[in-house]
Amino acid sequence: MSTTYYFAIVGTNDSPLYEAEFGAHQDESKYLNQFILHAALDLVDDAQFMTNACYLKTVDRYNDWNVSAYVTPSNTRLMLLHENKMEETIRSFFVDAHELYLKTMLNPFYEPNTPIQSQTFDSKINGLAKKYLL
Amino acid sequence: MAAKQYKAIGEEAWKNNVEKVNAELFIFTYGSLVVQLVKDFEDYGAVNKQLDKMGYNIGVRLIDDILARTGIDKCADFHTTAEVVAKVGFRVFLNIAPAIANWSADAKEFSLILEDNPLNDFCELPPKAVQEGLWYSNVLCGVIRGALEMMQMQTEVWFVHDVLRGDDVSEIRVKLVKILDEEVPVGDE
Amino acid sequence: MSNTATGPVSSATQLLSALSLDGRNSAEGRQINSSALEFLLPELVNALVSTTLRTKQISERIALGLDAQEDASDKHSPSTEKGQEYNATTIPGNPSMGSGWLDLPEDEELVEQVCVKLEMVGFRVGKRIAERFSPLSRRLTDTLDIVKFICKDVWTLLFNRQVDNLKTNHRGVYVLQDNKFKWFLRMSGNNGGAAAARRAQPYIWLPCGIIRGILDSFGTNTVVIAETLGLPQCTFQIKVVSEEQMVARA
């Protein structure tokens, strides 16, 4: 199976703080993925007003793709582009990814709303993808 | 024997004689301060020095507090000093008790092995800080140096290893340079 | 504060028990001696006074057409380090005496720059406190809820007590009053009055920054100022500012 996922963390200034692709790699798809996620940001904003839960489930669809979103208490958006519907698995992925993001935020040397460059973070996120998604 | 005694004194003081508070305000404030110093100095060596200096100023004030809380008076020899620093000083303030290790043959140098340093919580050093030699918790060296100076011991204190820099352990080295007051008995072995 | 959201399930529950405020108090998690921070604070202020002084001296050298590098190389030899001049003149004799609360330099402009830095240090602390302690079962969106979160939960975590009084005009101004602000308790013991109030001045900027940082994390821009009518009392005023006002200020 060649399932592909695209994961992004979007800061409060709407710029991506972190991006990762899991599964089968297609270089040319990166810009399309970014475009789909960016287009879904408004829908995330809309969905936030309907609930005060963090996990917003699927907020948008684009062809075969679903866009799921999770909003942290401080309004950072975790977004995942995926083909199959699997609400609870993605919830678990988001919750664990949020905890990793939280640890990054607490690092005194990390400036909020700047790209996350930590290698540890990257490998742990990939670990989560293996655990839940792949 | 003596080791056990100081361990008990430290734990007793921590349990009954200390107002405890969630550590994270302290941890975040320290981290934010280090980052500010890095910005201001743009030189990690200067930051190390500044942290050590701050620690020294804290140490000379903090020693009275420790003595008052524990009833400890003076240290008979440098072995006792090591016990008091590790089992009483660290316990009363940070609720940790580093292990004492690597005594030098002349008994004038020892190491403190910090298995669990609260200051390190949440911290991940940027590669540049590791390369250019930042000792993130260097304030601790200054505190030890300042406190021991008030106990008439002139020391040199420095970090040898730090887990934040990829080392297996965090290790602080303490070296007795000289006794400042002749009246204090020296542990000559 | 109401909680209408249904609690997250499965692995989310684990994160909740570790991080959420629901059922959490300061007895959980790592604890240290509350004096540790009280020992650190004066040194924090002193350190920022010396780095600010150093920056100022360097820029003065540049303005005079002198070589700034001369100073920059100085910092490798401790005896001539610029920053030490400040401490050398303010810790006369035995430094073990007193509480570490030093008198500030006369230079008001310098003190102001130090206060700005302290506020920024506090702001970064506030951002982290918000991330670490904000409830995960619900997102705080209403400013009053955030302010209540600060008054009750944050204050209890940080100072083992809640603020004594919270007032609002319901038009974006909130006033928090703490009659025994912890960081002032030691200061007020010395000689009170104007001298103590002036010495306390930088210290109020740290909690101001913390409060602003927490509100900023939840997307609320504010200006936070504080005043003391007599130590250890301290009053914080939070004023919500709109995006347009932010631009106008800048």
| CATH fold node name of the largest domain in chain C | Muramoyl-pentapeptide Carboxypeptidase, domain 2
Number of domains of chain A: 1
* Strand adjacency order, main sheet of chain C: 2-3-5-4
Query: How many runs of DSSP E, i.e. beta strands of chain C?
Result: 5
- By CATH, the topology of chain A is Beta-Lactamase
Specify the structural class of chain C: alpha+beta
Question: What's the pLDDT, averaged over the residues of chain C?
Answer: 75
Q: Indicate the proportion of strand residues of chain A.
A: 25-35%
Question: What is the H level of CATH, i.e. the homologous superfamily of the largest domain in chain C?
Answer: Trafficking protein particle complex subunit 3
Helix/sheet category of chain A: alpha+beta
* Number of helical elements of chain A: 3
Q: Briefly, what CATH class of chain A? A: Alpha Beta
Work out the helicity level of chain A.
40-55%
Q: Which outline of chain C best applies?
A: globular
Give a short synopsis of this structure.
The complex is a heterotrimer of chains A (134), B (189) and C (250). Chain B is α+β, with helices and mostly antiparallel strands and 189 residues long. Chain B has helices at 2-16, 24-41, 44-70, 78-94, 127-131, 139-150; strands spanning 20-22, 99-101, 109-114, 153-161, 170-179.
Write the layout of secondary structure elements.
The complex is a heterotrimer of chains A (134), B (189) and C (250).
Chain A: E1 4-10, E2 16-23, H1 29-50, E3 55-62, E4 65-71, E5 77-82, H2 87-106, H3 119-132
Antiparallel strand pairs in A: 1-2, 1-5, 3-4, 4-5
Chain B: H1 2-16, E1 20-22, H2 24-41, H3 44-70, H4 78-94, E2 99-101, E3 109-114, H5 127-131, H6 139-150, E4 153-161, E5 170-179
Antiparallel strand pairs in B: 2-3, 3-5, 4-5
Helix pairs in contact in B: 1-4, 2-3, 3-6
Chain C: H1 11-19, E1 31-33, H2 35-63, H3 68-74, H4 82-90, H5 108-133, H6 143-159, E2 165-168, E3 173-178, H7 182-189, H8 193-217, E4 222-227, E5 234-240, H9 243-249
Antiparallel strand pairs in C: 2-3, 3-5, 4-5
Helix pairs in contact in C: 2-4, 2-5, 5-8
